[in-house]
Structure formats: structure tokens, C-alpha cells
Amino acid sequence: MLRQLVCALALAVGLCGCATMSGGDRVDAVHLFGLPVTFNLDARPGADGFAVRVFATKGGAAKGAPITAGMLEVLMFDGTAAGQELLTKQPLQVWHFTPRELISLREQTSLGTGYRFALRWKEPPSHNYITVAARYVPPKGEPVYSPPSTITTTVK
């Protein structure tokens, strides 16, 4: 009886360890860092894009980790958007990146593995502010959003 209890306990501990390890690949949080201004990314005068860095943390870790599944998206809203508006307001533009596309954008920093983007919009905003946020869409489950960042722009 004692041997069965020890085996059951060992099996339970082993299974818990496996569950923790598989959960460690799930993205828990997305962090977006942006500059407070927009940029001119083409030959014509005026702002037409912005730059951000995105880090995804997994398994409760403090540093960014590579995104190996799902989709990373950068959302741009015309004007300001916060809270529930990130879920309900229509973005002016959305950029989608697969794990394969992210490889060339990946960089290693003191904050861990992250991704650097210089994104050019197709349609200019009509306000003097844009709001950007990152969204990780997992293969299964609910999307994970970064807090939004508001960037000052000049309308062309």
C-alpha cells in the first residue's frame, strides 16, 4: 500500500511538472514600447509611420521570450483609444506577423527577446494623436493585449 502511494505521488508530481513546462510556452503578457513621435519613412514630406518595440513574456518570466506560435499584431487607432475601446473600436490599420516573419525583426536586449518595428501607415490619421497597441493571438484561447501607447503626429 505504501509503495502504491509513493508511486501515485511520484506520478502526480511528474504530471504537475509536465503541465507547468507546457504552460511555460503560453504568452502571458505583451509589452509595447514606442517613441512619442511619428516619423517620415518615405521621400515625401510629413510623417507616415512610427516605431515600436514589442516584448512577449511567457510562464511568468520577467524577460521577453521568442514568439513561436500564433500571431503578433500591431494595431493603430486614429486618435486615442484605451481600455475596452481596444476591443471594440475599429483600428485604422493592423499589421500581422507570423512567427516566421518575426525572426528577421527579433533582437536580444537587456529586457530579453523582443521585436523592433518601423511601420508605415496606408491611410493617414485625421487626429493629432494615434494610439498603438500590440495584440498576441494564440493558436487557441483569447488574445493578449499590451497597454496602449499614444503618439503625437502631424496630419499631412
Q: If helices are DSSP runs of H or I spanning 4 or more residues, what is the number of helices?
A: 3
The level 1 CATH classification is Mainly Beta
Percentage beta strand = 35-45%
Specify the CATH architecture.
Answer: Sandwich
Alpha-carbon distance between the two ends: 79 Å
Walk me through the structure.
By secondary structure, this protein is an alpha+beta fold. It has a single domain (26-152), classed as Immunoglobulin-like (Sandwich), CATH 2.60.40. Helices cover 19% and strands 38% of the residues. It contains 3 helices and 9 strands; from the N terminus they run H-E-E-E-H-E-H-E-E-E-E-E. It has helices spanning 2-23, 85-88, 99-102; strands at 27-34, 49-58, 71-78, 93-97, 106-109, 112-120, 129-137, 144-145, 149-152. The strands form 2 sheets. Strands 3, 4, 7, 8 and 9 form a 5-stranded antiparallel sheet that branches. Strands 1-2-6-5 form a 4-stranded antiparallel sheet, with no helix packed on it. A hairpin with a 2-residue loop joins strand 5 (106-109) and strand 6 (112-120). The termini are far apart. Mean pLDDT is 85; it is low at 1-23.
